[in-house]
Specification:
It catalyses: ATP + protein L-histidine = ADP + protein N-phospho-L-histidine. The chain is an alpha+beta fold. The protein has 9 helices and 9 strands. About 15% of the residues are buried.
């Protein structure tokens, strides 16, 4: 027996999710969502404040001009030319309105002929008495240059804000990336963990207390997992090896009993049934040991066997079965096809796939074999329907219980070989043809 595949390789698989984002990216997005309204509000506040201050300064200038004009008008005679002046900045018109003790200030727009447009002004109006007559005094000051000044100041401030914003954004990104670097280093180690290599995995100390706590917990966890894995691995391997001896003894005893002529036919049938079941148990034990060795990577690639040669060997070994079923073999192979596999596993891969193609075929059926430098596929006709994908490579899953001497580990072993050596493995069914293909 051996630990299950899911227990042998301890790895963290990060699934792609279109609705998720990296922590650093999420931090930057939240930072933008917070800072953009703050900078926008700051820019609006500065614009409003500058505009208010400039209007206030302009109003003070108008009030000061009004006082100067009133002092001058107190000494002016009726024939003074000042009463005939009418400009956008100054106007004195007779009026029947009562005298006002306080001036009025407001913003107005006046058409400017040279520019052919309206220009903003601040206007002061007040009804005053000059030589015992009421006049409406109107004073104005242009805001064009001051508006331009405000715009220039705002542009400078926006440029300063933009530069500051980019600087803060970049600084925050660099600092966050540096701070989270130990976390991503630990995450990368977790993603590449394998149970048989846990003893060499150490999560280092960092300059951040929280990451040190995380790494300490990971170190304790990997140590416990490796100890448990080692104990289970040793137990299963020892149990499997210990089973070989009593199985061999029991089989030899049954073989001797089968040669005893004094036994009745009923007794012989019972012994033969027990013998067949012991053989099946022995094969099961052997296959489980094989799976454990593959999972523990005990078959390094020391040579690249020729897949074509291996296939020809097993076609010769299965020749009697092929002839018995009158199967038609169609091959499409290149001269040589060296594959990066251990020779023993190459034999197992070919024999399992070819054996299934023969075993599950019907009499006078067909088998198509294709081998290239990077692909290997076997297709066979069969009366059996498509294999459900959810149980295709599961252990101990026998298709339709047709062959009772099968232990349901053949395809599981093929899948384990493919996974261990980074080979692709696909199954397809079309028009009564079952196809298994693998590639480098």
């Amino acid at each position: 027996m051996a630990p299950d595949t899911a227990s042998v390789k301890f790895s963290l698989t990060v699934k792609k999710d279109t609705h998720s984002m990296k922590l650093l990216t999420k931090t930057m997005v939240y930072f933008l969502l917070i800072m953009l309204p703050v900078f926008t509000a700051g820019a609006f506040y500065l614009y409003t404040t500058f505009n208010k201050e400039i209007k206030h300064e302009t109003d003070e200038e108008l009030v000061n001009d009004k006082l100067q004009w009133m002092r001058y008008l107190d000494t002016a005679t009726i024939n003074n030319p000042v009463f005939a002046i009418n400009t956008p900045e100054f106007n004195l018109q007779p009026t029947d309105k009562p005298v006002q003790t306080k001036h009025k200030l407001k913003g107005v727009s006046i058409f400017q002929e040279p520019e052919d447009t309206y220009a903003p002004f601040r206007q002061l109006t007040q009804v005053i008495t000059v030589n015992n007559k009421n006049y409406q005094l109107t004073l104005r000051k242009s805001l064009i240059e001051k508006d331009d000044l405000i715009k220039n100041i705002i542009h400078v401030m926006l440029a300063a804000f933009g530069g500051l914003f980019l600087f803060v954004l970049l600084s925050n990104w660099l600092i966050s990336k540096s701070i989270w670097k130990p976390f991503y280093a630990s995450l990368d180690k977790i993603q590449r963990l394998q149970l048989n290599k846990l003893e060499n995995t150490v999560f280092d100390r960092t300059a951040t207390h929280e990451f040190n706590q995380l790494n300490a917990a990971l170190n304790n966890m990997t140590t416990r997992i490796h100890q448990d894995y080692t104990n289970i691995k040793e137990l299963t391997e020892d149990a499997a090896h210990e089973m070989q001896t009593p199985l061999a003894i029991a089989q030899s005893k049954l073989e001797l009993l089968l040669q005893d002529d004094s036994l009745s036919e009923t007794q012989l049938k019972g012994i033969l049934t027990s013998y067949d079941e012991l053989q099946r148990l022995s094969r099961l034990n052997h296959n489980l040991l094989l799976l454990a060795k593959i999972e523990n990577q005990q078959y390094p690639v020391t040579d690249q066997p020729d897949l074509c040669t291996v296939l020809e060997k097993y076609l010769s070994l299965f020749e009697e079965l092929i002839r018995e079923k009158e199967l038609q073999i169609h091959t499409d192979m290149i001269a040589t096809a060296p594959w990066p596999l251990h020779p023993a596993l190459t034999d197992i891969l070919v024999s399992n796939l070819l054996g299934n193609a023969i075993k599950y075929n019907y009499p006078r059926g067909h088998i198509r074999i294709h081998i290239s430098a990077q692909t290997f596929s076997i297709s066979n006709t069969s009366e059996l329907p498509q294999i459900p994908p959810d149980i295709l490579f599961q252990r101990f899953k026998k298709q339709h219980n047709v062959y009772t001497n099968s232990n349901g580990l053949g395809l599981a072993i093929v899948k384990k070989i493919a996974d261990s050596y980074q080979l692709s493995l696909q199954y397809s069914y079309e028009n009564g043809w079952h196809t298994f293909s693998t590639g480098i």
